[in-house]
Amino acid sequence: MIDIRDESSRDWQAVFRVISLAFGQSAEAELVERLRAAGDSVISLVAEDDEEVVAHVLLSKMDAPFPALALAPVSVIPARQRSGIGTALIQSAIERARSEGWSAVFVLGDPNYYKRFGFERPAAAGFTSPYAGPHFMMLRLSLSLTVTTGELKHAPAFAAVD
User: Fold this and answer.
1) Domains along the chain with CATH numbers
2) What is the value of pTM for the model shown?
3) pLDDT at position 1
């Protein structure tokens, strides 16, 4: 049975492994380490199966005209991909962000995948960002969010990702 919980420092080595396996390289795992070290990690969840970490998701601070988070990365070990674990992690992270009072979450990814969670390309279109484009999307968490333009800045650690 899959258990989704907050990441703890004892998980860091396993999380590095999961992310590296999921992406076939360590750049994204190193990003997570830099976000943690800088204090920009806000919501970091792991999925465990039989006490083994098999997936991870991170939401990090953004500089935006309202309280916003960036969703990245989402990682599931290859043997467990397409089993619903990533979906469950993303849903848990979004619910946590909503319950903590964040106004929006931004993601750079496949629109066909992320639209199932409510992410929309048009919602992000008015914002300037180095990641703006057809794969940049926003999920409104606050019904009262009326801001539709402005500058977005991801945490500085993102600038170092190749």
Assistant:
1) 2-160 (3.40.630.30)
2) 0.96
3) 84
